[in-house]
Amino acid sequence: MTSIMHRHLRQTPVTAVGASGLSITDSAGRRYLDASGGAAVSSLGHGHPEVLAAVHAQLDKVAYAHTAFFTTEVAEELAMRLAFNAPGGESEVYLCSGGSEAMETALKLARQYFVETGQPQRGRFIARRQSYHGNTLGALAVGGNELRRKAFAPLLMDVVRVAECYEYRNRPETQTRDQYTTVLLDELEQAIVRAGPETLIGFVAEPVVGATLGAVPPTPGYFRGVRALCDKYGILFIADEVMCGMGRCGTLYAIEQDGVVPDIVTVAKGLGAGYQPIGAVLARKYIAQAIRAGSGIFQHGHTYIGHPCAAAAALAVQKIIERDKLLDVVKARGATLRALLREAFGSHPHVGDIRGRGLFLGLELVEDRISRRPFPAACKLHAAVKVAAFERGLIVYPMGGTIDGERGDHVLLAPPFIVSDGELGDIVTRLADALRAALAQVRL
Ligand code: PMP
């Protein structure tokens, strides 16, 4: 191995040589059931013939044309489709190559909006503690994941930090759900006031938290409260739907279920479903119009923005989701998977919580179910589950292990939308077996 692409540089990664449907095959001929779509990416499974054909056709037509000179039909059609279906409609679209790029774009777009509208003093973002928004420097700075941030702390811009909305772990028994939500919103308002509302650009949050906590949805009313505070203080609301968006939660955008319209939404993973690297930023029209009416140039750009082959993949994926009514399938299969998980783990002594939306479901593993005490970080239970599942031919996305060791262990399930009921059963059976083996190992 000569690359430094893999996080664990001392391990030799398994080589994938084939993939079809929910299955990935390695060079030794072993097959793995992909129950997380990688990291909530492969929403149509692997090797979907229509998506492959769309990419091939675009390769033949125009593989690449720089946006300084050209647009392409396929990029325009995708952008129109995304703009039309965006939360609240009335949006403009920026196509890039992935989630972090989408977040960088969103942060810069939000900042430039205020520069163009005569509020250049707005220079800081407000974001949540348990959060992940990408690994490039801007995205890493707004994210609160201490493990990922630590080595780069001197390079990161200063961000105002508030608590995440994480009912299972953070709501005291003495509080109702509504009271907990009010406490969070009060904290947010106090943080805004303390920082000086006129100095803030935007509040950044994942509608359903994915990459640091397994599929944690907000409490009812939380994002309505966030929206109201952003409006009150003239701050933009940036919803990071890189992981939870594009149908994963049963609606095209997860935030639709919270009944609010963000100013800017970012998407990536499920947009191209892994067939090409692509992300997008959807900005409400007034943001783009302010820049158009001001300097006329968004001071941003990458060589591969609006890439035609990436756009062709995403367009094909999104058309299939609509044609095959896959959002309904996500809702139905999500309910089935949740029921299977409840059956298998509902009274499991080490599964504290089963949660999520659509086919974006998480388990929180705890040492003690009553007190909700997590396993000690040193156990690395999440990592043991990943390995045990992989050995059983199952791919799940585990998370855990912060510096302070308080985050606990989570398992994220995000199977492709085309998963069958039989495969869902198989996923849960293998996961139960893997969890048994992992628990036995950490208790040694
Ligand atoms: N935001 C969220 C919510 C994510 O889950 C991720 C990736 N896990 C990113 C941003 C960054 O996306 P990418 O890895 O494509 O750069």
Automatic annotation (TrEMBL):
Pathway: Amine and polyamine biosynthesis; ectoine biosynthesis; L-ectoine from L-aspartate 4-semialdehyde: step 1/3. GO terms for molecular function: diaminobutyrate-2-oxoglutarate transaminase activity; pyridoxal phosphate binding. Its cofactor is pyridoxal 5'-phosphate. Its EC number is 2.6.1.76. GO terms for cellular component: cytosol. The keyword Transferase applies. Keywords: Aminotransferase, Pyridoxal phosphate, Transferase. InterPro entries: Aminotrans_3 (IPR005814), Aminotrans_3_PPA_site (IPR049704), PyrdxlP-dep_Trfase (IPR015424), PyrdxlP-dep_Trfase_major (IPR015421), PyrdxlP-dep_Trfase_small (IPR015422). The keyword Membrane does not apply. CDD domains: OAT_like. It comes from the Bacteria. PANTHER family: AMINOTRANSFERASE, AMINOTRANSFERASE CLASS-III. Belongs to the class-III pyridoxal-phosphate-dependent aminotransferase family. This is Diaminobutyrate--2-oxoglutarate transaminase.
